[in-house]
Amino acid sequence: MVFMSSVTLTIDNLIVTVEAGATILVAAKKLGIKIPTLCAWPEIGHAPGVCRVCMTEVEGQRSLIAACAFLVSDGMVVHTGTERVRAARKMVVQLLLANHPQECNFCVRNGNCELQQVAETVGIKRMRFDYADLDTEGMIDKSSPAIVRDRRKCILCYRCVAVCEQIQAVCVLTPAFRGNELKVVPTFDIPLIESNCVSCGQCIMACPVGAIYEKDDIDEVWKAINNPSKHVVVQEAPSIRAALGEEFGMPAGSLVTGKMITALRMLGFDKVFDTNFCADLTIIEEGQELLKRIKGGGKLPMITSCCPGWVKFCEHFYPDLLDLLSTCKSPQQMFGALVKTYYAKQVKIEPQAIVSVSIMPCTAKKFEAQRPEMASSGYRDVDYVLTTRELARMIKEAGIDFPNLPDGLHDAPMGEYTGAGTLFGVTGGVMEAALRTVYAVVTGKNLQDLNITPVRGLQGVKEAAVEIGPLGEIKIAVAHGLGNARKLMDLIRGGKTDYAFVEIMACPGGCIAGGGEPIPTTNEIRVLRSGALYQDDALVQEKRQSHENESVKNLYRKFLKEPLGQKSAELLHTHYVKRGEDIPHQATECEINE
User: Which residues are annotated as catalytic?
Assistant: First the structure.
């Protein structure tokens, strides 16, 4: 039997050669022919071919063929624009629209909806069918503090199912029932909050329409800003400055730190601080915790805890390994605790008058802020979490011309940050920042090269070894995307590793591709956003290590006293919870992409 490594076929009278195993959709793309589709998504490989929008005519085939699922063969002749094909596509899209709520003008995806775009592409000018009367009762699930599911808008493309299963290995969402009752739901059709959902939001990034979106807190933030009795402060995660510009037509990877600060002031926030300040603080606490475990025979490997999606994943699926997680809160939560203690004392404002808002790339941060453990200040540490997309909507609502704004500067005392702090936004960044400081603390000198390139890049699991003076060689690992985290954690659970330190981020690429970032997010965009943060790190030539942050040093002198001290333990550290022991953990049966 002869196996061909390449296949030559004809599409619309053009000859193309592709690898064997490619689909018609891939072959057409190589020729620059755009075939509309809704279920196909580059992140998940071959599409299930369920939407039927990408129908094509293949000579010798009686029926029309779904280009996203049909594999090419040598000598195949394909037609993508015949009258039969165009009529079929219109019919499919008209049926989808007839069963879709007519709420485009106030849908969260208005203007960035693939169903809208496909309807325009296939030439829908009028509706052939009457619109269905959709009952909203029981169709909208708002149980989660992070994610809303609106089944009325679901087009059954299964992209959310695929990303939850194949990439994140959580397997919460699944097709259920049959015929007209077919729907995508959490297993056993339970509310999302009762499932094993980790709130990572990657299902939002996969959804082509507005069937899944983040819980919107914009109105509550506007109320706080407009309340004269409230002092409203804001922090922004490092990845926001590398992605926010995309919402205003700027190129992916545009670094918009100064414009972002100015926009936040124009929105009415009383103080504009930076999560990076507490990223530097996290490194001080986490670095000391790592050294304490290594020197004192503590549980290893120590695993980072700044990603709430990852933490919840571990609570659900690896509760036996929770003691490996660092006890450090995330930078967001450290910041919230300090705003209502240290900062409140500095400015002589009662903590109950302070409203703490964070701008995050992550939907899981909304869940994290509502955890009962996150009130060590005596108040809820972070009151409201907005995603990058929500901040963009606020800026647009306020009529701010974002691309043309002048650059502003962060406020003291929680606005200073080092290059290491900004690296928290990329996969491997926490590890890189921590190693810079741990090396300096142990050896008394800086790493010869602060750029720790082995932990950079989009490889799913990265390993390295670093020689740290008297500690000898320290083995480390970095994983991003929960499917990769599962592979790494299975090795750790099986005692097959000798790592000392592990970084895990829930989202592929890290925070720069979080569930609250601009849509779309592709690997090309991940690389550009990451590059912007590496650029930000390099721009701070004189201070690229967390322990060089003067404002953090001052925080210890005036308030915390020492890393891992009593005050730090009260405000900056936390504990974790075993979750979902009565929920079937079907994720162990998932087929995880290698």
Answer: 286, 289, 306, 326, 365, 368, 373, 511
